[in-house]
Design a protein that fits this description.
The protein is of the alpha/beta class. It has two domains: 8-122, 3-Layer(aba) Sandwich (Rossmann fold), CATH 3.40.50.720; 127-232, Regulator of K+ conductance, C-terminal domain (Alpha-Beta Plaits), CATH 3.30.70.1450. Helix content is 31%, strand content 27%. It contains eight helices and eleven strands. Strand 7 and strand 8 form a beta hairpin. The chain is elongated, with a radius of gyration of 22 Å.
Amino acid sequence: MPVKEVEKFMIIGLGIFGSELAIDLSRKGHQVIGVDSDRDRANRLKDILENTFIIDSTNLKGMSTLPLKETNWVIVAIGENEGASLMTVGILKSMGVNKIICRSLSKTHEYILAAMNIHDIVHPEKEAAQQLSHRLTYNLGKEMLFIDNDHSVTETLVPSWMVNKRLADLDIRGEFKVNIISVLRDENVSKTKSKVDIEKKCKGVITPEFVFMEGDIIVTFGKNDDIKKMMTANL
């Protein structure tokens, strides 16, 4: 899926988080450079990314060989080793790199990063845990983007009472105070003699005349309790 504006990212630390991020950015059409001290990790991505480097990011001499000036963003995705992460950030700062995103490994780690003027900090484990906690608490669906403790954007299977009905006939907003943002629907992508490949396609902004079908995934926004009431209603 190419993007209109291609950015160049350097990801330091190609563990699970770093490698998944690198692969996804690359698939979206960005130029991605991967850096890791582990040869196997770097080599696994060498045919996917624009380039990979086998370098110890805590070594100033090694880091000086990287094309940092050609990079829009450097993402320090090192996991488990806070010392290596902080040393890497320190070296990047000393080399004049300002656009740094860093993975936080603990509260103390985050405090030190903030003291180093790194304010773009991500918490993948914390965010994943919060997402799972919300999903288990409200049982709304596998995909949730929680806005705060009470509100979320949720993808979930259309309830049976909505099937074969128009949006205009349901008064979802008035009845449940929930907005339906869009719908994902199965579509035939390719067909051969042996199989049909199907994937979910977004229907965009749906109109009042839109008719829900069995198997649709509805994308909703509202209070978590209100979304749950809508999903469990027996109308």
